[in-house]
Amino acid sequence: MGVLNVGHNHPRIVAAVTEQLSRVRHTAFQVAAYEPYIALAERLNRLVGKGEA
């Protein structure tokens, strides 16, 4: 989705990305829906949307 030109396959960048991916992964909801995101949206809708779909 977003990129920064830091060169091709720089070892420090590869190490930083690998380390971060071992802790957390995220995908844009527009690309792939995932259950925790849907659960949060439903909860927020109940709190501020008065339960309306």
Keywords:
elongated, 2 helices, mainly alpha, 53 residues, 0% strand
Q: Ends: how far apart?
A: 29 Å
Could you say which overall geometry the principal axes of the C-alpha atoms support? elongated
> C-alpha Rg, in Å?
17 Å
Described by strand count, sense and barrel closure, the largest sheet is: none
Averaged pLDDT: 78
Structural class by secondary-structure content: mainly alpha
> Could you tell me the number of beta strands?
0
**Are there runs of 5+ residues with pLDDT below 50, and where?**
none
Number of helices: 2
Beta-strand proportion: under 5%
Structure write-up:
With 53 residues, the protein is mainly alpha-helical. Helix content is 47%, strand content 0%. It has helices spanning 11-21, 35-48. The radius of gyration is 17 Å and the shape is elongated. The mean pLDDT is 78.
Summarize the structure.
With 53 residues, the chain is an all-alpha fold.
Fold blueprint:
Layout: H1 11-21, H2 35-48
